[in-house]
Amino acid sequence: MTIRKKILLFSALALGAFLAAVYLSARFALLRSFSRLESEIARQSIYRLEKALDNEETALDVLARDYSEWDRTYDFMESRRPDYIRQELTSDAFQVIHVDGIVLLNNRGEVVFSKYLGHGGLDRDDLETIAAVERRGREPGKLRSGIEGVLELAGRLVFLAYEPILPSSGSGEARGTLVMLREMSDPVVSSMSRSLGIPLWLEPASRTLPVREELTWTDGVDFARPESDSTMLEYVAVRDFDGNARRLLASRLPRSLYLQGQAETRHLWGLLMLAGAVYCGALLLFVEETLVGRITRLSGEIKKITVSGDLSLRLDAGGRDELSELGGTLNNMLGAIQKAKAELLGAQESLRFHAEHDALTGVFNRRAIRDVLRKELARCRRERSTLGIILADVDHFKKINDQYGHAAGDAVLVTTVGRIAATLRSYDAVGRYGGEEFLIIAPGCDVELASRLAERIRTAVGGEPVDVGNESTAITLSLGVTLGTWESDPEFLVELADTAMYHAKHQGRNRVEVNLGSASQGFSAGPDLLQASERVAPRS
């Protein structure tokens, strides 16, 4: 055996051992990294499920507060006039606000009135259970802030929100407690599923927690585990007021990182094999003839690219042999890396855009427009300026969906956004805040400017009908206007605009209403605007 062959054989064996060690260590490191990433994704996804449950309870609590801090409810608790029940607590009203029942308790914790449209109704034991929650840990009749949670009533899982019954001013002596109920039924779970964009369902809480080695993530109660190589199951405990798990809210997610890890491992092995083949070819060429100068020059060019980071540079190995082929391969690799880098930057930009924008209308989504609101309020604090807040809602949107279909409803939303955007200034912002609700932020506006802007938006949107297939339909907006200052809380501002918008709904729709809230907001308003800011009745 010649020296050349011995060198080649020894180098091949050493290279093979080195590549195998690199592959195994890199594979272990990659799989561990992807496992940690998958665990973090599972934790974040479970947090989203927990947040969705909290949002359901919070939304119900907002409705309960609207009814409990209403003068008609407050008067009924003293007069017991039946017209309040007949006119305000109707089945139609329950369906509009998506609740299944209301229970009114007096200051002694006794049931004054109850109405329930859910499955099976409420028996005496159910009412006693509901009243016991209000009495537990509190002096009866002294509930000053709302509580919300979940109870299991006759095998049904029900969201409950407790609010003290007060005058519309929010102060004074409570005359009891209003309890609002909403069953965690299949439609409610389906609505949460659509909101999160993942399949959801309920399972019994008796499911045994798997051993930790079989889990992707757990906090001792909520957990995620692999279902297969491509999917993962997540479980979030739905707890009652005592902290006992009554059901498990389950979801299924794709294990994209796990599949990506397997693909990256295969790619790594392929790249290592390719590098080994190139190395053996270069070694054989070196044994055949002296190539130190060319290798040195090639090494210098590679170092230049490494130091500069300029992937547009290319190597010039010279000649027409295996070494030049190596240079060409490296150039192709540089081109591929350059292309992959550009594609990665484009994908990152696309992901950022889609994370901040509504997929249908192209404007900011709820999270992004809330971020814009917080930033503009921070600007108000720096510049001591004011900020116009407008909440617009498409009137009779459900009827459009029911009559013309969801495709027509989507067309109406897209057209509405286009007309709103055409009316705004270049530095105004608009975002889709809910299904057919849009939040407009107008920096540097006082109440008069914000009201005029809202009126222009209303006129522009309702100026001409929208084509929905072979027909056309007129669309109108109900708009609520409020004013933000450097002292404003963003959540409170949206609530003020929401209240004004629903006041516009109650006043006949297709109109603009102003709600300036309390005088502590840091600005003054004329009598007409203050009158417009008076508290309105709860939505129905």
Name its key features.
single chain, 17 strands, 5-stranded antiparallel β-sheet, disordered C terminus, elongated, alpha+beta, 540 residues
Brief summary:
By secondary structure, this protein is an alpha+beta fold. It is built from 15 helices and 17 strands.
* Main sheet properties: 5 strands, antiparallel
Q: What is the alpha-carbon Rg in Å?
A: 32 Å
The percent of residues in helical segments reads: 40-55%
Class by SSE composition: alpha+beta
In the predicted model, the low-confidence regions spanning at least 5 consecutive residues are: 519-540
| Oligomeric state of the chains in view | single chain
Secondary structure elements and their pairing?
Blueprint: H1 3-68, H2 71-79, H3 82-88, H4 91-97, E1 101-105, E2 111-116, H5 124-135, E3 147-153, E4 156-164, E5 177-183, H6 186-196, E6 200-204, E7 217-218, E8 223-226, E9 231-239, E10 245-254, H7 256-288, H8 292-308, H9 322-356, H10 366-383, E11 387-394, H11 397-404, H12 406-423, E12 429-432, E13 437-443, H13 447-462, E14 466-468, E15 471-473, E16 477-484, H14 490-506, E17 512-514, H15 527-532
Parallel strand pairs: 16-17
Antiparallel strand pairs: 1-2, 1-5, 3-4, 4-5, 6-10, 7-8, 8-9, 9-10, 11-13, 11-16, 12-13, 14-15
Helix pairs in contact: 1-7, 11-12, 12-13
